[in-house]
Specification:
Distance between the termini: 62 Å
Radius of gyration: 23 Å
CATH architecture of the largest domain: 3-Layer(bba) Sandwich
Structural class: alpha/beta
CATH class of the largest domain: Alpha Beta
CATH topology of the largest domain: FAD/NAD(P)-binding domain
Number of domains: 3
Length: 449
Amino acid sequence: MKHDLDLVVVGTGAGASAAAYQCKAAGWTVAMIDSLPFGGTCELRGCDPKKVLIGAAELIDWSRRMANNGVTGQLRIDWPALMKFKRSFTEPVPAYHENSMKDTSILPFHGRARFTGPDTLAVGDDTLAAQHILLANGARPATLNIPGEDHLTYSDQFLELEQLPKRILFVGGGYISFEFAFLAAAAGADVQILHRGDRPLRGFDPDLVDILSEKAKALGIALHLKTAIAGIDQGPNGLTVRTSRDGKKQRFIADIVVHGAGRVPDLDDMDLARGKVEREQGGIKVNAYLQSVSNPNVYAAGDAAATAGRPLTPVAAMESRVVATNLLNGNQLTPDYTAIPTVVFTTPPLASVGLSESEAGKRNLIFSTHFEKTASWYSSRRVGEQYSGSKVLVETDTDQILGAHLLGPHADELINQFAMAMRHKLSRDDLKKMINAYPTYGSDIGYML
């Protein structure tokens, strides 16, 4: 069946929804396509369910830290019950999104979309012809090209495990592996992380990553660096992971091997060439307005677009709003990636906004760095956290914050204050003059500067 539409959106997550609903509200005919349950990665397979599970890990970690400081009794995670709690958040999502589409007369389509021409997409037996197309179909795990790759467990599958295996090995030293490793360790699993590079969590401050790695070790998480995976074999005692490190071969045994080695735009089977849509390594090649450089009918947002933005849900949502404005009013708005914070939700969380020392140095900026290990500070000692720190970069001439990097309790919330200060160009002196409620984590900001 053929459908003639003003806008077709591929995806139903953060990068898709704002543009679809804004254009529909303006009177456009709109369709949305998803091959997975409606709602996108963050709500169903990423941020939201992950944070629900990590909430339990935070409670376990806090209780253990306070074991010799007035708290008695041993808490434990009941994994099946925790998963049931998690599903109370995720299970209503697909129906909510589909009903919302129908209520606003957006046409929903289930299936894989592929281009059949510069302005047409096919989904199953349906052909969708559109004046405009938005690609916001997210990302998938990167292919590792190793023997036995089919034995890998992916992050969405990990979030659906009914029972937590005893021996878990994570491939890759990025945020997915670290977050899930801390969660699994809190639930009692034996956890190992294999990372082929010499440093994990590459996008974060190395000094704070070192402190977080010490916390991981204290929790029993084994972190193996410079360890490349050669293959995975199924055996009678579980999965055998074959690796090499400095030319030496080594084997690891696990019940499951979880893919945490990066994600790539989910575009491979879309037949982009027939749509005259050019892509590069980071996704669809777009101009400053998020419009395809090779097909003006097509825009891209979120993980599907090759932009300067990080692959974060708030970034995808912002880009979707930018696309909506440009579709409705002509190209006039560009995405603003100023001071967007990001967090690794470990226990404690690791947070970052702005430039790293290395990035600031490459830009030849003149700045001061204030680095502190903060385990002895009241805010960490009060909750028994022995692994915390902060690093703040301040430009010498302007006295403005160039970057802030935090590790410790509530770093995921505190980083937002630094992001606001950077976005609104508050100086270090402005922040030091701020009177925060005491004792709170916000009251530590003056000492971090």
